[in-house]
Specification:
The structure is a single chain. This protein is of the alpha+beta class and about 150 residues long. The chain has a 5-stranded mixed β-sheet with strand order 1-5-4-3-2, with helices on one face. A hairpin with a 2-residue loop joins strand 2 and strand 3. InterPro entries: Ca/CaM-dep_prot_kinase-assoc (IPR013543), NTF2-like_dom_sf (IPR032710), UCP028470_steroid_isom-rel (IPR016887).
Length: about 150
């Protein structure tokens, strides 16, 4: 014969599980508009124009990933990102957005679409991109950046 807990004990367990959310930390959401999130690309693009990899990498959260258009290596550390941008910036890239879709949640945002990069030698590359951002309490930082050349060309 099995020993079953008294019914009032079972009810207490259900109540504790059901009300567990009441103990969760509440998060204050930093307000953001689509225009403000769109400006984050401009901030990043302007940092490219400086030619300084440090200024570009300053846009990324400490814990972030860069999956770059012209590199097979995922760039996770600050050093990896600096190495990538040191070489990428040598070609004097300037990006322009061709299409975008922005989604905003509580302290996070996604800007995804297509962009074109023009380089100092006049060449261009069309690519797809996704930037994800987090509000760190002071500013918006990139947590992931994926960019891949358009598979069908121009």
């Amino acid at each position: 014969m099995m020993n079953h807990p008294p019914k009032r004990f079972a009810i207490a367990i259900v109540f504790c599980v059901a009300s567990g959310g009441a103990l969760a930390k509440t998060e204050t959401c930093h307000p953001a508009s689509k225009k403000q999130i769109a400006a984050l690309f401009d901030r990043w693009n302007d940092s490219l124009k400086t030619g300084d990899p440090q200024k570009v990498v300053a846009n990324y959260a400490l814990r972030s990933i860069l999956l770059a258009t012209v590199s097979n290596k995922p760039r996770v550390s600050v050093e990896d990102k600096l190495d990538y941008f040191k070489h990428f910036l040598e070609s004097k890239p300037v990006g322009t957005i061709d299409f975008r879709d922005i989604m905003i949640e509580c302290n996070t945002a996604i800007d995804a679409g297509t962009y074109t990069f023009k380089f100092g030698d006049g060449s261009t590359v069309k690519a797809r991109y996704t930037f994800t951002y987090v509000w760190d309490g002071h500013k918006w930082l990139i947590t992931s950046h994926h960019s891949s050349k358009m598979p069908e060309g121009d």
